[in-house]
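Trying the structure run again after the queue cleared.
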Amino acid sequence: MPPPVRSKQRVLSLLDRLSREADPSTAPFLRAAAIGYAAQTFPTVLRIVLGVVLRRKRQSSLKVVRELARALVKGLSPRGLGAAFGVAVGGAKYGERWLEPVVRKVYLAAAEKTRAAREGKGKGREVVLSPEEAQEKLRRDDKVVQTLTTWCSATISSLVAVLLLQSSPGYARRPAPASFQPDPKLDFAVTPYSTTVTGLDPQPAQPVSDSTRNGANLRTSMVVQSPTLDLTLLVFVRAGRPLQMPCLPMFLSLMLAALAVDTLVRGAYENSGLTDAKGRFGPLVTFLASQADTLVFWLSCTRIMWCWFYKPHLLPSSYSRWILTLARMDPRVLQLLRFAREGRFVYGKRPDDEVARICAAIAAANGQDAKTVNPEYITHIDCTSLVHNTIGAGSCETNAIRRWAAAFFDCLLIYLPVHAIPPLLFNFRRLLSEPGSSILRILLAASRSSAFLATFVSSIYASVCLVRTRLPQVFPSLPQQPLDGGLSVALGCFMCGWSVLIENHRRRREMALYCAPRALYAVLDEIAPEIFTQGKTGELLCRWLERAIFATSAGTVIAATVHRPDLVSGVVKGVVGVAVKDWVQPQGGLPIK
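Done. Tokens:
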């Protein structure tokens, strides 16, 4: 036998022996750690590589190599995402053997007490089961015990994982960001407070009045204090999808939590009978249940866009800027809408100095006289000459069409890679065997998604123009102030979310899960009791509540992926499914079917 073949067999034999002798939790730990490592390092590596390829800035080869090495080494940190994901999944498998006897004993005792109480408060006659029924009962109880064991173990390991993440210096809890303070250097695109108009007047803006500050809910925000909050809320929403039940009165965790809600609601929907509801309202109930993803997306977008217009401090600043870029909107016009709602921009009244500066800036940018925007001299702002110019002048209808086209091509650059990368990575053979149909399918999917987002953008502009421009033309007696002070924006926020109907059902679900955490992010600061926003006690309560939601949500997602993968949806099902592949059940447990 040639030496290379013999060496290969030795290596394979060694690997086989290690896999048989290693702890069952080793493989899940390594797979989850690899996924977490990739999630932490890939964006940084991609940014560095794209920077070199696109030549945005010239760097020496040595510097690029150092940056790549730094990113790759940072991912190996024992407090990084790789270690945390490995602990969450591998620890869940490791803890099953210790928790299974305890969970089985507690569950069976509780089940017996419940059955006895149901049969007559402990005095009812004993029900005799046939051998088949007894076997089915044992099998059902064993399934429940295994699922509860995995959930308890995964919850504990996930708590350790989030503690590991939050112990890292990079995840240190930060004070409330500057966007919560009336600082004249703030960008008025992302804060409701007074600011300086760049390029027009170097003087500081006027101090914010108490009414404005109170109206904006100026509080120390727990939303931005925890760097792991995005991950937590994502898992919470995902885990809760298999219980159509009232949500927690307070959502204190963002991205991870989305996964848990998703899983629980799917399970509740499956067992609720809504799939074949009968009676007078049966068809309506079934229809609404089948469109739950659309309704979640619509509600989320309504809240997100309202906050973007009037309460941007409740959204991540990068998210607000992304919306502003896609909308191609002059941020000074956006600020003027906020002033109109606050009662600082009122037709027929002299504005304060800050409002006057912004009005003058808008007029100058469009080549108009300052009086054409100053509310003291006008009764209506002409959107044709002062708002539509960011994409070319024209009527309100023409503007909506142009904005749709511009947003469509902007989004096409985003969605082409989104729809092309999965076939390239996971279905490359089909792409090679059927290149024409595969490319056409990618183009159609990307065009459909781009049309959805373009309709989202243009529907807001069309709604605002309809309310503030077209309605007064049809009904001249309508007062202009309330239309500019919130009604026009309210219709735009109400209408934009329905654009998701352009997408297919699977994509609607993904979009709903994408937007729901951001909508929760936008309500946390307003619905949280004062005890969670004041002093060290509030910080401690907030921190541990977030950790508890993170742990239970992650436990729900992991347990569902192991025992009921049909309840988990989207990319999470594939990612977590890889980590828990070949999950061996606890000693003595029956296989889950």
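Confidence is low (pLDDT under 50) at residues 174-186, 193-225, 240-253, 586-593. Worth checking whether this holds up in the mutant runs.
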